[in-house]
Design brief:
Strand content: 15-25%
Distance between the termini: 42 Å
Number of strands: 7
Number of domains: 1
CATH superfamily: NAD(P)-binding Rossmann-like Domain
Largest sheet: 7 strands, parallel
Shape: globular
CATH class: Alpha Beta
Number of helices: 6
Bound molecules: NADP nicotinamide-adenine-dinucleotide phosphate
Strand order of the largest sheet: 3-2-1-4-5-6-7
Structural class: alpha/beta
Length: about 240
């Protein structure tokens, strides 16, 4: 059986894939999940080609049964969970008077509801890992948009503010059980999600997905006595609440 295991949602590209790679390099057997099966399998193959142990489980995060099945398959494969990365997310911009309810529901569903359900599903095994070594991790991908309101991205920003707050609550509830909870709050990262912004900020000037991977490596290496509640990533010269 694997010595350590991690489950990462939204791991078929961008930040989730970069974090999955680091967790694999650091000795974790991986379950990676995302919505589109072919894209996910391509990511899994790339990780396996680097010698990492990976199972891929496609799931739509808005579907509770799908999401619960990811955790069941993880348990079946590895029997333990040391690191949970709730990373899947979606951002749909719109002026407030034009908000479409289906886009509201999708962002709440993927960015917040799935993260809460995932935390619930992951906790039993995370508690076992916490009792064993005192250093299980829950890493939730928020955003710098969660640090301050954003015009035209109001729903996305609200879900990410809620992610930061939910991460704090989770830590207050389970921190004593050897589970450390951290919210990652980056500005623009060069991933498929920021294609819309690359006319204004070139991709090569954005934060690298690997920077967030390295942040998770850091979280793995700090002592069990050191809790890092949140990491904010900005581009040089940027403010703390603007993407
Ligand atoms: N890029 C940025 O500037 C930035 C800044 C701050 C925070 N973030 C956050 O970082 C996280 C990762 O985003 P990214 O930038 O790495 O973008 P990305 O490369 O587009 O990754 C998004 C991931 O989420 C998955 N996903 C989206 N909707 C899903 C659904 N309904 N069910 C299951 N999986 C779903 C995607 O899978 P499919 O491709 O198959 O849909 C993909 O694996 C998100 O939470 C995002 O809000 C990004």
């Amino acid at each position: 059986m694997a010595q350590r295991a991690a489950l990462i949602t939204g791991a078929s590209s961008g930040i989730g894939l970069a974090i999955a790679r680091v967790l694999g390099e650091e000795g974790h057997a991986l379950t990676i999940s995302a919505r589109r099966p072919e894209k996910l399998e391509t990511a899994a193959e790339a990780l396996r080609a680097d010698g990492l142990e990976v199972q891929s489980v496609a799931a739509n995060m808005t579907d509770e049964e799908n999401l619960v099945a990811v955790f069941a398959k993880h348990r079946e494969a590895y029997g333990r969970l040391d690191v949970l990365v709730n990373n899947a997310g979606v951002g749909i911009g719109a002026p407030m008077e034009e908000i479409q309810t289906k886009h509201l529901d999708m962002q709440l569903g993927v960015n917040l509801r799935a993260l809460i359900i995932g935390t619930r599903e992951g906790l039993p095994l995370l508690k076992e890992a916490g009792a064993e070594h005192g250093k299980a991790l829950i890493v939730n991908t928020a955003s710098i948009a969660g640090k301050g309101g954003q015009a035209w991205l109001s729903i996305y920003a609200a879900t990410k503010a809620a992610v930061i707050n939910f991460t704090q609550s989770t830590h207050r509830e389970v921190g004593g059980a050897g589970i450390q909870c951290t919210a990652l709050a980056p500005g623009f990262v060069d991933t498929p999600m920021t294609e819309f912004a690359k006319g204004q900020v070139p991709g090569e000037e954005m934060i690298r997905p690997e920077d967030l991977g390295e942040a998770v490596r850091f979280l793995l290496r700090t002592s069990r006595n050191c809790h890092v509640p949140e990491i904010v990533f900005t581009r040089p010269g940027e403010g703390l609440d603007t993407p």
